[in-house]
Amino acid sequence: MLSRITKNVSIMEYSSKEILKLIERASGIPDILAKRETIEELLEKFTAVEEYLGRFKTLEELTLHLKEVEDKIYLCKEYLTTEEACKYLSLSKYTLREVVKRREIPFYTPPGKGYYFLRTELDEWVLGFRVPSSAEAEEQAQMEQRAALAAKNKGHRHEK
Asked: What sign results for the dihedral spanned by CA atoms 127, 128, 134, 140?
């Protein structure tokens, strides 16, 4: 049938049955083209997955990596369980429970549940333990000395 088309045959030479088949094939072209795009998208995705998997030499290495990712998924959560908070803060469960007992850290206790911690509040709690650098400590000491000297000089002026 295609050979007739390429020979510039008049449409009148086709039977109505052949014309319907041509129309049917032509109407399927958009579907075929859409499927082609889908296939190309799938090939791109497979290529990306293949490149990603190529980073790992063995299945065990890939499995270990996925386990590490699963273990850190809590970092995306807003509220953390006790276990997740322990991992996040690198504290033992005992230490975290003691801190909770002394109410040194904010926590939440929904009915029937354990402790929950807001990740941002954990960050703030850790920031409360900041130790200044040597340069900052020295600068602070100098400022305190100047303030003490200024206060002493002010006191001597009032005595005169």
From this structure: positive
pTM for the full model? 0.52
In this structure, is residue 138 part of a structural domain? no
* Angstrom distance (rounded) from CA 132 to CA 138: 9
Q: Give the pLDDT confidence of 100-153 residue by residue, as tens digits.
A: 999 999 999 988 878 999 999 999 999 999 998 999 989 998 998 988 888 877
Number of structural domains (the chain) is 1
> Encoding tokens for residue 114?
């354990």
Residue 113: C-alpha distances to residues 23, 108, 116 (Å) = 66, 9, 8
Asked if residue 121 belongs to a domain, the reply is: yes
**What percentage of the chain exceeds 90 in pLDDT?**
34
CA distance 46 to 39: 10
Domain extent at residue 96: 78-127
